[in-house]
């Protein structure tokens, strides 16, 4: 089906004012790079989402669910499909005792703050991760010894048929930066977290400490997508990259951060091609020197 055909089909299902065409993805990613998405739709309610999913599924229109774009590298050529972003109804929070039900579009930092306000501990480690709760569970985000798998009790998700299903923790297949969402086209809607009672001030101090450490160690002053590569077993990606002599190494406007070699940063108007080129160079040099292949942690969207 050509783009014109699927666009015509989409317009029958989705209100025209909701459809943004040729939306620059550089405005929706923490790397600040990426060409246009053919279509970008912000979906505000579950009913709207169900209709959009039915429409896309019935014509096999390519679709990508965007969280906060903080682990994403979008091609300079953009994405020839529909990018869905979850809006208002997906950013709500409900706390009952030690349970928090959090909408997928809520930012992890806000969820951590809400947990603190309710004197619940267990979510401090996400307070400086710049993603959404949905993106966090997809990636099983983690830091400072914590990982979402430690606190997630289950997820309400939408399947391809537009049905809302509940996935229990065991069904989520949460592993190191992975989950069932990487295998199945489910959309995370609400995440149920099970936390522990704690002391509000201690929780606040812990979050401040984590954020202080981040600011000290990470190049937060430049656009990036966090750690570029996964941690290979028995090694640290940043150390391998540094020991390969790549600290500050650049391709175009992309650079291996001088502050933290595990981060590729957009130093000076980098393109996705620069970032790809730099990542490939890092992989080759680290492999040649240490025999270790670095797997990207960041997610790629669109043709290289
Ligand atoms: C400065 C910086 C520091 C970082 N530090 C850390 C860290 O300490 N630990 C860590 O783990 N990560 C870290 N990251 C990476 C990133 O913030 C996390 O991976 C985060 O969880 C990604 O969430 P997101 O909402 O931005 O997802 P996106 O980047 O938008 O998307 C990531 C993936 O999730 C999918 N997705 C998003 N929402 C949904 C949904 N509702 N349903 C189905 N699929 C969905 C997307 O399709 C995509 O495949 C850092 C990034 C930056 C820029």
Explain this structure:
The protein has 304 residues and is α+β, with helices and mostly antiparallel strands. It has three domains: 86 residues, 2-Layer Sandwich (Uridine Diphospho-n-acetylenolpyruvylglucosamine Reductase, domain 2), CATH 3.30.43.10; 112 residues, Uridine Diphospho-n-acetylenolpyruvylglucosamine Reductase, domain 3, CATH 3.30.465; 83 residues, Uridine Diphospho-n-acetylenolpyruvylglucosamine Reductase, domain 1 (Alpha-Beta Complex), CATH 3.90.78. The protein contains seven helices and 19 strands. The strands form six sheets. Strands 6-7-13-11-12 form a five-stranded antiparallel β-sheet, covered by helices on one side. A four-stranded mixed β-sheet has the order 1-2-5-3, with helices on one face. The longest helix has 19 residues. Bound molecules: flavin-adenine dinucleotide (FAD). The site of flavin-adenine dinucleotide has 33 residues, from strand 3, helix 4, strand 9, strand 13 and strand 15.
């Amino acid at each position: 089906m050509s783009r014109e055909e699927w666009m015509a089909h989409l317009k029958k299902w989705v209100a025209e004012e909701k459809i943004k065409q040729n939306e620059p993805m550089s405005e929706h990613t923490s790397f600040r790079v990426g060409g246009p998405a053919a279509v970008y739709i912000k979906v505000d309610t579950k009913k709207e989402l169900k209709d959009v999913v039915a429409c896309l599924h019935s014509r096999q229109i390519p679709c990508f669910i965007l969280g906060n774009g903080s682990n994403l590298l979008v091609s300079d050529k953009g994405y020839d499909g529909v990018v869905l972003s979850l809006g208002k109804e997906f950013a709500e929070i409900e706390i009952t005792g030690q349970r928090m039900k959090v909408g997928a579009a809520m930012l992890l930092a806000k969820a951590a703050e809400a947990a603190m306000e309710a004197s619940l501990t267990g979510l401090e480690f996400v307070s400086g991760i710049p993603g959404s709760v949905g993106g966090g569970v997809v990636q099983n985000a983690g830091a400072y010894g914590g990982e979402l798998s430690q606190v997630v009790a289950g997820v309400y998700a939408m399947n391809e048929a537009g049905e809302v299903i509940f996935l229990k923790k065991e069904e989520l297949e949460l592993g190191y930066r992975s989950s069932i969402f990487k295998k199945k086209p489910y959309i995370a809607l609400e995440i149920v977290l099970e936390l522990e009672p704690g002391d509000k001030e201690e929780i606040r101090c812990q979050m401040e400490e984590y954020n202080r450490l981040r600011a000290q160690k990470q190049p937060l002053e430049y656009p990036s997508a966090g750690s570029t590569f996964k941690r290979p077993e028995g090694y640290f990606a940043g150390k391998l990259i540094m020991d390969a002599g790549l600290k500050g190494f650049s391709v175009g406007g992309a650079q291996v951060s001088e502050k933290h070699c595990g981060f590729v940063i957009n130093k000076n108007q980098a393109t996705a091609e620069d970032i790809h080129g730099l990542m490939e160079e890092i992989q080759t040099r680290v492999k040649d020197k240490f025999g270790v292949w670095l797997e990207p942690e960041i997610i790629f969207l669109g043709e290289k």
